[in-house]
């Protein structure tokens, strides 16, 4: 399969993630962030385990739980903290720093070269997200800012190590392992620190099904498939598609206004994502060297 096709398939994941805000605010009960994260991750992971009929071997359990924590448990928890303590635009802008963080981490972990155009594309994308989402009343709460940056860093590290520790299994199997591990990590925190959920309505159940089956099982399968095939810097740039989708859905579904500045921000984001794919494309020899290092690491 060609690289452009892999990019388009991977881009479907953050595009669908852009619906998370709409579904969460319009279809789910408020005040249960960890519980809802468990219900999003654990049932989806267990379902995929049944489908794939594969459990991680004992020697990989440590890595699977580290990745489950980075990509799900820590990331989603910090994401909710940032969302509660910051305006949505500020939280999303901080989250878009992930692409810059991935470029730096991939250099140290995978030996991926840092290219000036890739850094410029990532910085431009952050600017575009800011134009798309930030308003004049944006406030900076220190804890919220720390959570937003921490969440971006957690997902960035998880993305790079998902590439480095890619086991010789199907991407769907790798997704099942990580989702289940993330849900298991979050479960005791939900039971200890949050009250029981109220009786769920049909709308609540539909929202959970969407976030679990589509927003977790399907999208993270596409995402980890892309992580295994595309350079980490290029994959992380695709994450900026999420706020664009969120704004478009708010405009179409909720009737929210779309200002000229927001439209310009969306164009800048899409342009930076496109440039980021070109900038992060490695030479054939460099790509083979990185792939060989990853293979040696997996066999070690």
From TrEMBL:
Domain of life the protein comes from: Bacteria
InterPro entries found in the cross-reference section: AA-Vitamin_Transporters, EamA_dom, EmrE-like
Keyword Transmembrane on entry: yes
Localization (cell): Membrane
GO cellular component labels: membrane
Keyword annotations of the record: Membrane, Transmembrane, Transmembrane helix
Annotated EamA domain residues: 8-133, 143-275
Chain ranges passing through the membrane: 7-24, 30-52, 64-84, 90-110, 117-136, 142-162, 174-193, 199-223, 235-254, 260-279
Transmembrane listed as a keyword: yes
Pfam families: EamA
Topology with respect to the bilayer: Multi-pass membrane protein
Similarity field: Belongs to the EamA transporter family.
Protein name: Probable blue pigment (Indigoidine) exporter
């Amino acid at each position: 399969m060609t690289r452009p096709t892999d990019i388009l398939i991977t881009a479907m994941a953050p595009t669908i993630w852009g619906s998370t805000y709409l579904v969460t605010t319009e279809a789910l009960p408020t005040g249960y962030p960890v519980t809802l994260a468990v219900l999003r991750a654990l049932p989806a992971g267990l379902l995929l385990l049944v489908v794939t009929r594969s459990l991680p071997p004992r020697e990989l359990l440590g890595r699977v739980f580290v990745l489950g924590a980075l990509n799900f448990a820590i990331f989603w928890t910090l994401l909710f903290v940032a969302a509660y303590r910051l305006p949505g635009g500020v939280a999303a802008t901080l989250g878009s720093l992930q692409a810059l963080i991935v470029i730096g981490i991939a250099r140290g972990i995978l030996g991926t070269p840092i290219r000036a155009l890739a850094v410029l594309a990532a910085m431009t994308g952050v600017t575009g997200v800011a134009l798309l989402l930030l308003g004049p009343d944006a406030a900076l709460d220190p804890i919220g800012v720390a959570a937003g940056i921490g969440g971006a860093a957690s997902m960035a590290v998880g993305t790079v190590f998902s590439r480095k520790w890619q086991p010789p299994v199907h991407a769907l199997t790798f997704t099942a392992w990580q989702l289940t591990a993330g849900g298991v990590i979050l479960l005791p925190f939900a039971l200890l620190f949050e009250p029981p959920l109220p009786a769920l309505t049909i709308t609540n159940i539909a929202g959970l099904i969407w976030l679990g089956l589509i927003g977790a099982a399907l999208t993270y399968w596409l995402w980890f498939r892309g992580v295994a095939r595309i350079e980490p810097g290029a994959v992380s740039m695709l994450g900026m598609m999420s706020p664009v989708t969120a704004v478009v859905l708010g405009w179409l579904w909720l009737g929210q206004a779309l200002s000229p500045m927001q439209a310009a921000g969306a164009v800048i984001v899409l342009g930076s994502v496109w440039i980021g794919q070109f900038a992060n494309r490695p030479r054939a020899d460099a790509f083979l060297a990185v792939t060989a290092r990853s293979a040696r690491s997996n066999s070690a």
